[in-house]
Design a protein that fits this description.
With about 170 residues, the protein is mostly beta strands. It is built from no helices and twelve strands.
Amino acid sequence: TTTLELLLAPHGDFACLKDDTNQLSNVVFPATVELGDGSVLMTGGFRSVTEDGPKTYLSGPSPGAAIFDPRTGQMEVIEGMDPSEGRAAHSMVFIPSATGLDKGKVLIVGGLNKLEVDATKGFPFVLAEADARNDYVLFDVATRTFTSGDDTMLQKRGFPRAHILAD
């Protein structure tokens, strides 16, 4: 058993943050991305473990989202990211504004609805394509709103990686 905890604290200070929504507490495989102002957007993650016959799953993906400001130690809960489903094991990338007039956007892509855990295997996570997602969401940093994408990716992706290109 490996115990892992994450402490978010203001830069150069110490504080414990409270998540009154219980959407971002005790989650596995959430996504985080640094925004243009140095704050951090955190979304999703699995919240429970379920058993289905002999199989065990990480499940209950969180619809939670929050922005942590390391300068102040404050956490701002954001509503509206996949409230009906949630997502975990997804990727996010910050896309700065080309004009510099707004705070940019965050692309949230792929992820999983559940993930099988098989402790008998050397690598215990078994990804089933049926549990992966092929959709995306855009988060507008200035308005603090989420918008579902109009299209879907050709391939479903769990644990995808996304990076901004030079252009």
